[in-house]
Design brief:
single chain, alpha/beta, 9-stranded mixed beta sheet, two-stranded antiparallel sheet, 12 helices, about 40% helix
């Protein structure tokens, strides 16, 4: 018993010389304590969800994180889409790899106050698929939350895969107290059907719904300036009203968002004065108000604005 009391709360069972004397229940409890210790340094945990794919959920998650970081907050992004991890591409971190230390795994820094973690950083090549069942995914999430040195964060943004399956369940279970879910949808009925399920899922796992974001909502003609309803407008707002959750805002279609994502250069940093970037900032403000209604001391913008990935990929290639 005395030997077990010497077990370090931050040490992984796999690297502990005493792990052979511990039962599986004791190891499980130890991993849960590690997760709890790391999460105690994170003020707010936010899940970004969608009922179906193709609605721009990851784009919203990335630009939400960038918007919060631009205000001076300490932010982390956890890419929980194990089978389609796209966040490194959107941030120009394609060639980055995770670094292990005696204290734990270090997330990849995008900026001094923005850290990123993705399974993509662990894959041997970009085209390598992850062919895992639920228990393995749960295990890697436990590692991402309990064995990664996130440090002190104001916000952890978790980008979940579409739907209401293993990954959202695991994240909600492991984090325990998620401050909010943000549901991303597009205005058409097919997307709204599934986004409503995401709202109901959040309630089932006792996660407060910060609100619905209506993405790809209207398009401003670059020639005449007239708004065109390519995918209709207002569906997300109507669903929010019917489900009695907040409506966080509309993000218009902007071809530059696609170009910036492909270039790995965050849209809100590259085009801060565009209508879509302003919409992202307003949405981030509403989410902040939701998770922090008391209003702590407002962070001052970082001196290293704007957050941009320019040059990061070249540096990563050189380091590789």
């Amino acid at each position: 018993m005395k030997e077990k009391e010497k077990c370090k709360s931050t040490q992984e069972c796999e690297t502990c010389s005493q792990s052979h004397s511990c039962s599986e229940d004791e190891k499980r409890a130890h991993r849960e304590r590690m997760v709890g210790e790391k999460l105690s340094h994170i003020d707010h945990r936010i899940m970004v969800m969608s009922g179906k794919g193709g609605v721009g959920k990851t784009t919203v998650a990335v630009n939400l994180a960038i918007s919060l970081a631009r205000k001076g907050h300490e932010v982390g992004i956890l890419d929980a889409d194990i089978h389609g991890p796209n966040i490194p591409k959107m941030l120009g971190l394609n060639h980055s790899k995770l670094v292990g230390t005696p204290q734990g795994i270090l997330p990849v820094p995008f900026h001094s106050n923005l850290k990123v973690l993705s399974i993509a950083f662990m894959l041997p090549e970009a085209d390598a698929p992850v062919v895992w069942r639920g228990p393995m995914k749960h295990g890697v999430f436990q590692q991402f939350l309990g064995e990664v040195e996130w440090g002190d964060l104001d916000y952890l943004i978790v980008d979940l895969p579409p739907g209401t399956g293993d990954e959202p369940l695991s994240i909600a279970h492991l984090i325990g107290e998620v401050d909010a879910s943000v549901i991303v949808t597009t205005p058409q009925e097919v997307a709204l059907l599934d986004s409503r399920k995401a709202v109901v899922f959040s309630r089932m796992v006792h996660v407060p719904v910060a609100g619905i974001v209506e993405n790809m909502s209207g398009f401003l003609c670059p020639h005449c300036g007239k708004e065109i309803d390519l995918f209709k407008i207002g569906g997300g707002e109507k669903a929010a009203r019917e489900l009695q959750v907040p409506f966080l805002g509309r993000i218009p279609l902007d071809p530059q968002i696609v170009r910036n994502c492909d270039q790995g250069n965050p849209f809100v940093s590259a085009n801060p004065d565009s209508p879509a970037a302003k919409a992202f900032m307003e949405i981030s403000n509403r989410i902040e108000e939701f998770v922090n209604p008391s209003g702590k001391t407002e962070k001052k913008p970082s001196a290293q604005q704007p957050l941009s990935s320019t040059g990061k990929e070249e540096k990563a290639k050189a380091a590789g």
